[in-house]
Amino acid sequence: QVRLVESGGGLVQAGESLRLSCVASGPIFSINNMGWYRQTPGKQRDLVAMVTSGGSTNYADSVKGRFTISRDNAKKTVYLQMNSLKPEDTAVYYCNAHMWVGSTWSLYWGQGTQVTVSS
């Protein structure tokens, strides 16, 4: 069974940092893009950052200069280093990955991890 499991969320004060991790496991042949999204109640899930298999990155304007996405292909893991956190960063953070499983490419999601930033 293919799984994405996030960790690293929690409650912090504004200005502090958190590092999220997301590990893929199961019968995965290859991983293409990996990304982080976030969602608050009643709103759509929005892209935070994305990294390609070659290491190219893309960020939402609201997190540029504060967040850094990276990946370790050997460990099938994607990270999100979040610095200078703001209350508006409070959300459930989800990772996703475009993976070759069996005989097809499919998009998989993790279960989410809560990040709460107090002012």
Describe the protein in words.
- It is built from no helices and 11 strands.
- With 119 residues, the protein is mainly β.
- 30% of the residues are buried.
Summarize the structure.
By secondary structure, the chain is mainly beta. Helix content is 0%, strand content 61%.
Structural class: mainly beta
| Beta-strand percent range | over 45%
Q: Profile the largest sheet.
A: 7 strands, mixed
Radius of gyration: 14 Å
- In N-to-C order, the SSE pattern is EEEEEEEEEEE
What global shape is seen?
A: globular
SS summary, helix count: 0
Primary descriptors:
119 residues; mainly beta; seven-stranded mixed beta sheet; four-stranded antiparallel beta sheet; 11 strands
Helix-strand layout with pairing:
Layout: E1 3-7, E2 10-13, E3 18-25, E4 28-39, E5 46-51, E6 57-59, E7 67-72, E8 77-82, E9 91-101, E10 104-109, E11 113-118
Parallel strand pairs: 2-11
Antiparallel strand pairs: 1-3, 3-8, 4-5, 4-9, 5-6, 7-8, 9-10, 9-11
